[in-house]
Amino acid sequence: MRSRKNELHYNLMVLPGILILILFSIVPIYYAAMAFENFKPARGVAGSEWIGLENFTYMFQLPDSRQIFFNTIFLAVLKIIANLIVPLVFALLLNELRQRFMRRTIQTIVYLPHFLSWVLLATIFFDLFSLDGIANKFIGLFGIDPVLFYASNKWFPAIIVATDVWKEFGFNAIVYLAALTGINPVLYEAASIDGASRFRQLWHVTLPGVRTTIVLLATLALGNVMNANFDQIFNMYNPLVYQSSDIIDTYVYRVGLNDLQYSLATAVGLLKSVVSFILVVVSYVMASRFANYRIF
Amino acid sequence: MKKMKLLTASLALALVLGACGNGSNGNGGGGNSSSANGGSNTASSNTGSNAAGDDGSSTAPQLSGDNLAYEKYNDPVTLNIGFKIPDDKLKDGDTNDNNIVSRYFESLTNIKVVHAWEAKGDDAFKQKVNLAIASDDLPDAVVVDRNQLRKLIDNDMLEDLTDSLDKYGSKLVKDIYASTEGRALADATFDGKVYGLPNVAIDADAPSLLWVRQDWLDKLKLPAPQTMDDVEKIAQAFVQQDPDGNGKNDTVGITGDKQVVYGQKPNPNGFDSIFSAFHAFPKNWIKDADGNIVYGSITPENKEALAKLADWYKRGLIDKQFALYKETQEPIVANKTGIFFGPWWMPYWPLADSVTNDTKAEWRAYAAPADASGKFVTHMAPVTDRYIVVRKGYEHPEAAVKMLNVFTRYERRQDNSADAKKLDDYAAETGVHIRNFYPFDLLLDYADAVVKRYNDVQQALEGKIDPNTFDPDTKLVYDFTVLDKENPKKNMDAWKPATAYAYGGKVLAETDMEKVYSVFYGMTRTMETKWTTLEKLENETFLKIIVGDLPLDAFDDFVAQWKQLGGDQITKEVTDAVNDK
Questions:
Q1: Predicted complex ipTM
Q2: Are B142 and B132 in contact (CB under 8 A)?
Q3: Measuring CA to CA, which of B32, B157, B204, B312 is 20 to 30 A from B421?
Q4: Which residues contact B245 (CB under 8 A, 6 or more apart)?
Q5: What's the pLDDT at B5?
């Protein structure tokens, strides 16, 4: 009885999340049936003509499909890797700082970008990477001709990944920093008595201490392999770089809402969801095996 | 355990923030196009009519026609609409759904207009309508485009407006529809029933003219442009010879839009006129030399135009960043460019902003570049491109017609009441565009309005006609022209129509143009599923050839691919549809 009383406020905290989940994730499952129909708005999901897998067949004939699936996975994987490593390195470096004040200040500054919207950042980055922007001024110092970063299929994916990491690494580092404070200081004491240098301490105490966190975050991130961040890409891309950065989400958005091809858009989105679901299951199995993380 | 809690908490936070991000994102997308929309709004705001003298020339279906058309409801009627939010800032606590304009129309009709939803900008509005269609949740009346109209009719979601228009349509509205020889209503008619109240666009909106900074031309001692080579020389000089004289190499050449061409009604920065100078008419369905119907984007002439544009881009004569701007007018407003393509109404927007930022700017329009034989060629635009539709089952379909009657009467300046005058004064005082607050963003005008008005105003300036005999629209242009002559650029509201007519209108009136009409504007069955893909292929190929990402010969691959991916089938369907007419 005691424990139930204690759990009540936890349940209340979860409630809004559950409601949002039901409304935006569970209810729409019914509408996923559109993917197998020639959907007519007036007739609704129940009344539209059932055409089976025709939308999927058509989707695989489209020259764009392969490209957008590739782009999505490519960008998402790069982001996942970069977003694991950069915050970790940063957290380790920050952890070595002795001055508490400095540490706090830096931490606050670097996680601020997390709270800025991509609408705003896209404009700022556009100026930075424009022909007479800072980036081109800088490479101009070395006598390199200006590059149209935003129009280049070589550079644009790099910019997408780099700006995403810049925006999020401070925030992602919080989890690592929390894990780092959880390491028992006695271990460091013992290590230094044994004559371990700071680098040795990092290698033999710190990293093993956060190992489970790293593995956990990595496996959980697997569920995001099909998510390359609609917000960011929608605000930053342009037709010249569709080839390298048009992702499933932006494609579904354009096909569905601009071109009224509801069924096709749903089919593409549904395929993405199915792949994502498989990856989530895989990542959960892996997380429970390697990091002893269990939900059930 | 502690770790887990923190992780969960931060994940939850991230989730919530992510959701917020999505919201603001949608708004941003809408904002992008809002000014483009504002531009075309302002553009036609003075394209009035010469209808005042036409009374009695056509037969009204009923004796009490106009009395019925303008009759006020005894009991208030509620009309739910979807509303496009304009850029204008209202005064005195007025809101988008309760302001001096809405109160005026309500006092005339006793129709209570309720905004079921609002959207900012063309793209956002279009998506809102698409959503409304998809969820079968149309407001009582809303403005839709051609594809949406077709979709709505296919789905049987619209009220038949034939009788309502016949009985309640004002004489003015019917006259303007009649002036198109039935083409306007035919666009909204299926199986003999009228399902939408179409707009009537003016011919003048179709050609894309070359707008050039005359003060820069004079400074660099360059002649007025006529041929393709002239345009090239001017662009080169504007890029290299520091025309703005600030000592920095910061001017760009011809600006463009990531759409490359508009095809029907142009906005700023379309390359339509370059293509038509080579007798290529991308995005239009045209007849070839043998009389066969072909899609204008795949004819070999396009390749010549693309070669020219790619060459110019490579040499920096076209703004290197043209495809990257979120809003195409940015370099024009910032006065980075002195040469671009746009229709006659450019002074309303974006040029008014350019001049506000640099009062030295003197913009002139030219019908250039000419084709090889020295003639200016242009594609034309469809008579209608938007329609007021009424949801099936709405009890008062005539309310939409009555609304159309009253705002068209005001727009065409045939409303001489004291309240209408109040609106005029309000507009003059605040700079608010009254038309942006009509319940429907849809204008009716006579096809030749701009050219006729330009000619009348010129004759009045020469003293050949008494301006007091003008219809109110023409009179307004005349007054503003005189005002701007006395005090150039002092009053921008006078400068806009004065300049648009004096230069844009002049070129349209005085140039003998070869006008090419598209034979087909609708959608066919195969288009419904395949057109998006084909259009994307086309847009990307054109854009990439121009910026050099693809070689010129990629055009041939594009044509082959276009045909194979459904283009041939669509061409056949279009041919059948045209022959059936």
A1: 0.77
A2: yes
A3: B204
A4: B219
A5: 45
Strands (E), B329-385: 339-342, 363-366, 376-379
How far A195 CA lies from chain B's nearest CA (Å)?
A: 30
Under-50 pLDDT residues of chain A: 1
Cβ(B382)–Cβ(B264) under 8 Å? yes
Please state the pTM of the whole predicted model. 0.78
pLDDT in tens, B20-52: 433 333 333 333 333 333 333 333 333 333 333
Q: Measure Cα distances from B295 to A217, B10, B289, B552 in Å.
A: 53, 55, 13, 19
| pLDDT, position B581 | 63
Buried b / exposed e along B402-418 (16+ C-beta atoms within 10 A):
bbbbbbbbbbbbbbeee
Q: Which residue has the tokens 């790069």?
A: A78
Q: Strand locations in chain A, DSSP E? A: 37-38, 49-50
Beta bridge partners of B285: B295
From the number of C-beta atoms within 10 Å of its C-beta (0-12, 13-18, 19+), residue A139 rates as middle
Q: How many angstroms separate the CA of residue B133 from the nearest CA in chain A? A: 6
- % chain B with pLDDT above 70: 89
Q: Which of A123, A178, A239 sits opposite B6 (nearest CB)?
A: A178
What is the rounded average pLDDT of the residues B518-535?
Answer: 86
H helix runs in B462-491, sequence order: 472-486
Closest CA to A114 of A166, A165, A176, A167: A167
If one counts every other C-beta atom within 10 angstroms of the C-beta of residue B40, the result is 18
Confidence of residue B523 (pLDDT cuts 50, 70, 90): confident
Q: Are the CB atoms for A163 and A121 separated by under 8 Å?
A: yes
Q: Nearest residue of A to residue B18 by CA position?
A: A231
Inform me whether the C-beta atom of residue B532 falls under 8 Å from chain A C-beta atoms: yes
Q: Which structural domains are found in chain B, ordered by start?
A: 51-202+384-437 (3.40.190.10), 207-379+517-580 (3.40.190.10), 449-511 (no CATH)
- Residue B470, by phi and psi: left (phi above 0), alpha (psi -120 to 50) or beta? beta
Question: Would you say residue B477 has pLDDT above 70?
Answer: yes
Query: What is the rounded distance in angstroms from the CA atom of residue A170 to the CA atom of residue A114?
Result: 8
Pairing of β B376-379 and β B386-390: unpaired
From the list A231, A242, A261, which residue is nearest B532 (CB)? A261
* Residue A294 phi, psi dihedral angles, 5° rounding: -130, 140
Separation of alpha carbons A229 and B63, rounded Å: 63
Report domain extents, chain A.
68-290
Nearest to B266, CA basis, from B339, B343, B204: B343
How many Cα atoms sit within 13 Å of A274 on the Cβ side?
8
Burial class (CB in 10 A: 0-12, 13-18, 19+), B536: buried
Closest of B411, B4, B3 to residue B172, by C-alpha? B411
CB contact under 8 A, B258 and A259: no
Domain A68-290 has CATH 1.10.150.20: no
Q: What residues form DSSP beta bridges with B516?
A: B379
- Give the separation between CA A56 and CA A270, rounded to whole angstroms: 10
Give B579: exposed, middle or buried? Use CB within 10 Å, 0-12, 13-18, 19+.
exposed
